[in-house]
Amino acid sequence: MCAHRVRRSRAQNQDAAGSPRPTRNITGPQSALTDFLASHNISARRIRDDAELRRMEANNRAGINGHTSPVEEAEAVVAESSAAAAAAAAAAAGEQSSGRNLTGTQSSKRKKTEQKTIEKIKASRAFKKRKKHVDDSDDSDEVARAIFEERHAPLPGQMENCAICDKRFTVTPYSVAGPDGGLLCAPCGREIAKERQGAQPNKKKPRKQTGGVGSRRSIQSRILDGDVGTKSLATLCVQTLAKNVDMAESLGDLPEHLVDKIARIFSKRRLLRPETLPLFAQPTTESIKIYDGANLSAQDYISIFQVAPNLRSFKARSAIQFKDEVMDYLLSRDTALESFYLHGANLLSEEKWHELFEKKGQSLKGVQVYYTDRHFGDDTIDVMATHCPNLSRLKIENNQKLTEKGVESIGNLSALEHLGLQLHHPLSSASITSAVSKIGPKLKTLSLKIVPEADDGVLQMIHESCRSLQKLRITESEKMTDQGFVNLFKDWVNPPLQKVDLQKCRYIDASRPRANDENVGLCSEGFKALMAHSGPKLVDVNVHACRHISQQAFEDVFDETAVYPELKRLEISFCEEVTDFILGSIFRACPKIKEVNVFGCMKVKAVRVPRGTILVGVPNAQGMITEGMD
């Protein structure tokens, strides 16, 4: 056992002798003495140079005074070294800069030491390597001096005086060398760097695009906005105005659609402020549209009604500061509003809404309210039914107070032609059916967003009551069936619809996501019935996420004999059976098609898109937007 251990230790020693292990460079925290010496520019090199200088002086004195014993000489050198080191530390603590404020004796000693060190450098290999590129003896002295300064330069973390402004600063690895030697502080280093960079030749500027349409992102944004091709002169003027808004005094007599376009650009760029609001609020203004009023105060809204007495249509989004005081001022004015659109005014109390309809209800024809939280409820609908006999448009979205009772009261608005609801309280089929049965014959627009409890009874009532519908929206229903949609569109006396939005009317079951035994939602037969009834007049169709429409149904609807002359926009995202062949059939059957969305249609691979048509959501490496060039 012992012999085995001996052999093992010998083998380890032999391995160690054959391939010595590399030394480990382990560093730890610095002591207080180390930090003190570094802060006063006392480095190991300086201590070594001073020690060599003291030894040389001791040897010289020994040669002059006679020989001494080695012990006495060593004791003298140690004593002198200790005293000199203490004196150097004390002197360094009081110095303002290294190498400055030295006495004549110290300066001469320092010069002698530097000269001897330079002579040693001239005999080194580093000097010989640099000497190969230098022929003149003066240049060789400069090379030796440069090597000396490199070796004796202050280390990072030490203190040094700037060679230009003489300020004390901490040396870093990025400290710049001065033109006459020494190091520079950060401000002086930046100035010198600018001067040196200015002396260099200017770099070539990157080549600008000459197409005149900007970057790829702006091109895609224009395509999504439908702005394809050369911009019109009016568009260029509007964009120029938006860029120089501070120079504009008024908009003049621009048409209403251009003023609306300017307002949209201002809101998009956050340019609508109290300073720019007077561009839109003029004494002759009859319609004002504020698409982002977050930067406006209550006094700014009051100023609108002060300046524009003939105002007929008022629209404000993100109108956070539209409070009771603003409504009080509006009610005190003789302004006959016909359209009132308010978004985000959740600080406006319900009592002020009642006063508005009581005093201004006779002239009101349209009311659109968004994000009013708990200040617009069932009682408000009753007040509207009493005091707004001419109200033809009502839209309420993201409201937390209106309930089924208020929805039933909407049926008392006899002149209503456009109705849109999106409420936080769930709506039953009975409440919706009750309202539609009363106002259905005159309805032109019916929008019911997020109605999971609505069933086929609502579709049947729409089929029986509505005779003038042009736009129908029912989203996220979980109880309507494919047969209910078939019954709605089959033999319906209503004229063909122009816009249909039935997105997310589908079967939802996490345990069986693919199965749909009862054909819940819009499926194949319902989609066929829709296109058969309204196909000739349809402009916009949205069947987003109606994933139970089969591939055969799409092929039958867009077969070689089908033509949909007015269809411009088709949303079929997440209809999983859509293929390249179906898209090709859509492009052939819809001559006016402008935009098709196919997000989540993973069977779409490489379809050819006609010129002027936008295909959005193609799952390929070329991007999400494709503009046809064929």
Automatic annotation (TrEMBL):
Pfam families the record matches: zf_Tbcl_Rhp7
Biased composition (Basic residues): 1-10, 123-132
Source superkingdom: Eukaryota
Organism of derivation: Epichloe festucae (strain Fl1)
Lineage, uppermost ranks: Eukaryota, Fungi, Dikarya, Ascomycota, Pezizomycotina
Cross-referenced SMART domains: LRR_CC (SM00367)
Ranges where the DNA repair protein rhp7 treble clef domain occurs: 156-193
Region (Disordered): 1-29, 92-140, 194-219
Gene Ontology cellular-component terms listed: SCF ubiquitin ligase complex
Biased composition regions of type Polar residues, renumbered to the chain: 11-29, 95-107
Protein name (record): DNA repair protein rhp7 treble clef domain-containing protein
Stored InterPro entries: Leu-rich_rpt_Cys-con_subtyp, LRR_dom_sf, Znf_Tbcl_Rhp7
GO BP, one annotated term: SCF-dependent proteasomal ubiquitin-dependent protein catabolic process
